Amino acid sequence: MDSSEELYDMTIIGGGPVGMFTAFYAGMRQAKVKIIESLPQLGGQLTALYPDKYVYDIAGFPEIKASELVEKLTIQMNQFENTVCLNEEVQEVAKENNYFVLKTNTHIHYSRTIIITAGNGAFKPRQMKLPNEERFSQMNLQYSIDRLDRFEGKEVVIFGGGDSAVDWALMLEKIASKVTIVHRRDRFRAHDYSVKRLRESTINVLTPYIPDEIIGSTRVEAIKMRDTTGENNLVIKADEFLVNYGFVSNLGPINKWGLSIHKQAILVNSKAETSIPGIYAVGDISTYDGKVKLMATGFGEAPIAVSNAKVYLDPEESLHTAHSTSVMSRDKKKQTVVNG
Predict the structure, then answer these.
(1) What's the predicted TM-score (pTM) here?
(2) Which CATH class is domain 127-243?
(3) CATH assignment of 7-123+247-339?
(4) What tens digit of pLDDT does each residue of 94-132 get?
């Protein structure tokens, strides 16, 4: 190991919400912590794609804006000392003696344990796969929303049937002049309560339709849609079009680290251990029998990984820590941020 480099107790790969909470809990266990994040800021998809979107399944918050949740997680995490490395993608992981060597696109890092919280890995939005779609991308054809005010007083069409599509439709109902949601099935995949609100709203629901052709020259003027039952086709006009078909995820370099992978997720046991001793995984990137992929699930898995990593580092340590009030009474420290 390079003598100029520090050796950390736990290095967290991924600075999304679950990674941030994992760093906080590692601080609770008095571990020396580093976060490595490939994006230029913490918060993952919440920051990069959905800063104005409300999140509804966080304990204690009936609803909270994504950007506000990231802000609160940052404050919580920064109660303890940690190092954050941004704009760095971990490309290689190797075990040397009793520590791991993590090679990124810009630096080499050393850690006694690793906790992977990289969400769905590298991601990009699923497209409609229509001719000329790329040409209209980021004009009035969007795959995420970073500013709600651009939709004020406009007619908006949303394609999708999951939580994100339904949540955006409900939020835009209060801002846009008209909102239409288009889904290929009559049954939506969003949470039951959200679908109930959708059915009771003024939002125009069109099912079962799929987009078939983009109409327009310099911008999308309309989209021709095909009825999946083969009975009807129609053309829908709007000012703005939003595609919420989810994301195509790719574990990227993680696939080459020798971990057991199942359906683009890392297999873990009840201790959040991967197939490589000393490496743990939590959040959407991990999987096990009965796994429910929610942010709330990842928050619950974080203390499991941290506590078991603590015992891995020192078998004399207790799996269970002191009550949080006694831990938080200690001196609070600050964060060091390194931009790659």
Answers:
(1) 0.76
(2) alpha beta
(3) 3.50.50.60
(4) 999 899 999 999 999 999 999 999 887 666 788 999 998
